[in-house]
């Protein structure tokens, strides 16, 4: 049996293609690794259409060459139209190919997803165990009613939804992602995350988040269960990445890398104990840092910390259920800068309750924080979030909304028309926020003075190019 794991193309960034670099699709790499261990006789192929920049014609030719029995696609909300087109192509090649989708979008909208004519089944929530069990059932011609964690069409074409699957309690039991199946040379971080001239990659050391922010899919996707890999397991993977793949820079995709202080310090000490020459970037909350932790992080190679500030208005933060005081942002940035680590921040514009006045508060806070890089995203209410349900109930979605409009940064019109703040104004304020932040003389001088290497100069150049594209 041949199984193809496919990352779909996402061709409509509204003119901002490539703004976020290219990252290895870890979800597919984990699926491939797990299948390879459980069923080594299965021939596993991967096709990163987004990473390779493949056209629909090229995708069709690749699938014809591979001739898979099952195709598993990751289905993010902004790319769902492209997912459906790829599914159509697959079924045009052969109706016998089983098409399975997974990820946050199918998890949030399982019945609607499987109701699409070219989709046979959807893997919900965590994928490794469920996808394997689904393949076993298909291969053995068993009914799918006993496979937990899926939605599917029965023989009569009815959409069925099974109970949730088993959550993976021991993440150490999973094999390391099958990076060897991917063309690693095509992946690179965006200029906001590039910290060295080392070959870069991405990793995740935990799954889940204990918080219930209204805009985030993490609590829904991981069912609010937070699980950690052991420090030994994490650092063993880093060593494999260094020795086998030549990686030296890592972007950790954990929702909250420093949520457990003891674990964070143990990680740093293990990296130093093994004398690993790496640099890395992670995401943190503003209320999970202190001087001791930051000293350890810096000495273990941490070069940048990214914060989700989200808003400069306490009222908006409370509506988001962010559960953080506004003054914590300034305290955290000061601590990180004092430790000699670069800072990056993200804000969202256009959440529930947003006004032009609260957006002005956000821009003012961003300038005050003066991080090395700052991003101003359009607030996108993804299915499965409280934000989505509230916007839907209040009739805030644009009448001509498309899935591609759920992109965080693009020149497409945002998905919502808020009271007193239509989509056109949200897009206007996003562009204005970028302009006001990056064109300040203080910031420009800081960036020029901070150029100490070829990497710094390259990041400055690429960042300037991205800014000009956003401003178009």
Task: Please describe what this structure looks like.
- With 472 residues, this protein is an alpha/beta fold.
- The chain folds into 2 domains: 2-161, Cobalamin-binding domain (Rossmann fold, 3-Layer(aba) Sandwich); 189-470, tm_1862 like domain (pyruvate-formate lyase- activating enzyme, Alpha-Beta Horseshoe), CATH 3.80.30.20.
- It has 18 helices and 15 strands.
- The protein has a 7-stranded mixed β-sheet, with helices on both faces.
- Helix 1 crosses helix 7 and helix 14 (356-369) runs parallel beside helix 16.
- The protein is globular, with a radius of gyration of 22 Å.
- The mean pLDDT is 93.
- Pfam families: B12-binding, Radical_SAM.
- One of its GO terms (molecular function) is 4 iron, 4 sulfur cluster binding.
- InterPro entries: BchE-like, Cobalamin-bd, Cobalamin-bd_sf, Elp3/MiaA/NifB-like_rSAM, Methyltransferase_Class_B, rSAM, rSAM_horseshoe, rSAM_sf.
Strand content: 15-25%
User: Taking all residues together, what is the mean pLDDT?
Assistant: 93
Assembly type: single chain
Per DSSP, the total helix count is: 18
Q: Return the CATH architecture of the largest domain.
A: Alpha-Beta Horseshoe
Radius of gyration: 22 Å
Q: Unreliable segments (pLDDT under 50, ≥5 consecutive)?
A: none
Secondary-structure-based class equals alpha/beta
- Spatially, the strands of the biggest sheet line up as 2-1-3-4-5-6-7
Q: Mind telling me the CATH superfamily name of the largest domain? A: tm_1862 like domain
Main CATH class of the largest domain: Alpha Beta
CATH-defined topology of the largest domain: pyruvate-formate lyase- activating enzyme
The rounded distance between the terminal residues' Cα atoms is 48 Å
């Amino acid at each position: 049996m041949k199984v193809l794991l496919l990352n779909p193309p996402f061709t409509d960034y509204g003119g901002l293609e490539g703004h976020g670099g290219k990252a290895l699709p870890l979800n597919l790499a984990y699926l491939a690794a797990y299948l390879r261990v459980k069923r080594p006789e299965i021939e596993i192929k991967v096709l990163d259409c987004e990473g390779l920049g493949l056209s629909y014609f090229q995708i069709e030719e690749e699938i014809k060459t591979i001739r898979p029995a099952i195709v598993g696609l990751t289905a993010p909300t902004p790319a769902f139209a492209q997912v459906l087109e790829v599914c159509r192509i697959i079924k045009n090649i052969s109706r016998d190919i089983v098409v399975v989708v997974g990820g946050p979008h199918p998890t949030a909208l399982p019945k609607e997803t499987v109701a699409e004519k070219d989709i046979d089944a959807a893997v919900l929530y965590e994928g490794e165990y469920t996808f394997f069990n689904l393949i076993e059932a298909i291969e053995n011609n068993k009914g799918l009613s006993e496979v937990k964690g899926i939605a599917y069409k029965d023989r009569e074409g009815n959409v069925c939804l099974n109970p949730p699957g088993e959550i993976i309690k021991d993440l150490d039991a999973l094999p390391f992602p099958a990076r060897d199946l991917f063309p690693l040379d095509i992946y690179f971080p965006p200029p906001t995350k590039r910290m060295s001239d080392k070959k870069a990659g991405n990793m995740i050391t935990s799954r889940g988040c204990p918080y219930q922010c209204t805009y985030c899919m993490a609590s829904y996707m991981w069912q609010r269960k937070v699980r950690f890999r052991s420090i030994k397991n994490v650092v063993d993977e880093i060593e494999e990445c260094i020795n086998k793949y030549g990686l030296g820079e890592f972007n950790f995709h954990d929702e909250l890398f420093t949520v457990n202080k003891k674990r964070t310090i143990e990680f740093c000490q293990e990296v130093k104990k093994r004398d690993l020459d790496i640099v890395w970037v992670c995401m943190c909350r503003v209320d999970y840092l202190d001087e001791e932790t930051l000293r350890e992080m810096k000495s273990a190679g941490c070069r940048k910390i990214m914060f989700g500030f989200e808003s400069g208005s306490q009222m908006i933060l409370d509506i988001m259920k962010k559960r953080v005081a506004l003054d914590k942002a300034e305290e955290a940035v000061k601590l990180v800068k004092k430790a000699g680590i670069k800072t990056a921040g993200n804000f969202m514009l256009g959440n529930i309750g947003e006004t032009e006045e609260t957006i002005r508060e956000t821009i003012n806070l961003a300038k005050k924080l003066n991080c090395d890089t700052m991003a101003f995203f359009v607030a996108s209410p993804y299915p499965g979030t409280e934000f989505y349900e509230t916007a839907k109930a209040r009739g805030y979605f644009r009448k001509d909304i498309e899935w591609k409009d759920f992109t965080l940064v693009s020149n497409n019109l945002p998905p919502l028309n808020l009271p007193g703040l239509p989509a056109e104004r949200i897009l206007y304020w996003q562009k204005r926020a970028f302009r006001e932040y990056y064109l300040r003389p203080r910031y420009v001088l800081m960036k020029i003075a901070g150029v100490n290497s070829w990497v710094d100069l390259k990041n400055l150049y690429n960042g300037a190019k991205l800014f000009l594209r956003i401003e178009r």
